[in-house]
Specification:
Order of helices and strands: HHHHHHEEHHHHH
Mean pLDDT: 79
Distance between the termini: 25 Å
Oligomer: single chain
Protein name: Myb-like domain-containing protein
Number of strands: 2
Number of helices: 11
């Protein structure tokens, strides 16, 4: 694997900004997960257990900051060198930015334009299958339940109408499932166990950050 992929990003990766609730170590793991699974493969990242406790919304927003742009459509499904994309975006002039991320102020891409952009980005920023195969992710074996976007994350996120509807339906099902467990007296015990698992995970991450400082 090339050195630029496996090296530890000691300078805040590449001057990206941290989303609330993220540590440097967690963002380094997210960077590797995005290269391994591809941008937009949020469920695969969640299921890999490399970032327990993170919701899809949190991962989505931190990915925007790693790439340096709010719109992710032209990178969906791609395994790319995120640092290279970020540096490319930082060189762009006459654009609006928020948290170092370019804000899309024009019309949304058509399906044909999006396909063209994806092909171009794969050519310019893509990493090889051989490099992807060598990426190793930590696995913390936290028995946390599947993470869902909150209502605010869905409505305020940069999602299409269809994506918002799908996420709202998924959230509704999760709420109904939890209400049923409350009625049956099952949720409190499971919640206590999840809290303990997350506490242990945070301690591992804190110890890891301290040892690498």
């Amino acid at each position: 694997m090339s050195k630029q992929i496996v090296h530890h990003q000691s300078q805040s990766l590449w001057n990206y900004t941290l989303s609330p609730g993220w540590t440097m170590k967690e963002v380094e793991i997210l960077n590797l997960a995005l290269m391994k699974f591809g941008i937009g493969k949020w469920r695969k990242i969640i299921n890999s257990e490399c970032l327990p406790g993170k919701s899809i919304g949190q991962i989505y927003m931190q990915t925007q900051r790693l790439l340096g742009q709010q719109s992710l459509g032209e990178f969906m499904g791609l395994s790319v060198d995120l640092k290279k994309v970020y540096l490319h975006n930082m060189q762009k002039k006459n654009v609006f930015r928020k948290n170092n991320s370019i804000i899309n102020t024009g019309d949304n891409l058509t399906q044909e334009e999006r396909k063209k952009r994806i092909a171009e980005n794969k050519k310019n920023f893509g990493i090889s299958p051989a490099d992807i195969a060598l990426i190793k992710l930590p696995r913390y074996h936290v028995n946390s339940q599947t993470s869902f976007l909150s209502h605010d994350e869905i409505m305020e996120g940069n999602f299409t109408t269809v994506e918002k509807i799908n996420n709202l339906c998924a959230l509704k099902k999760d709420i109904l499932r939890k209400l049923k467990k409350i009625e049956n007296g099952e949720l409190e015990e499971a919640f206590d166990d999840e809290v303990e698992q997350k506490r242990r995970y945070k301690k591992v991450m804190t110890d890891s950050d301290s040892s690498s400082a």
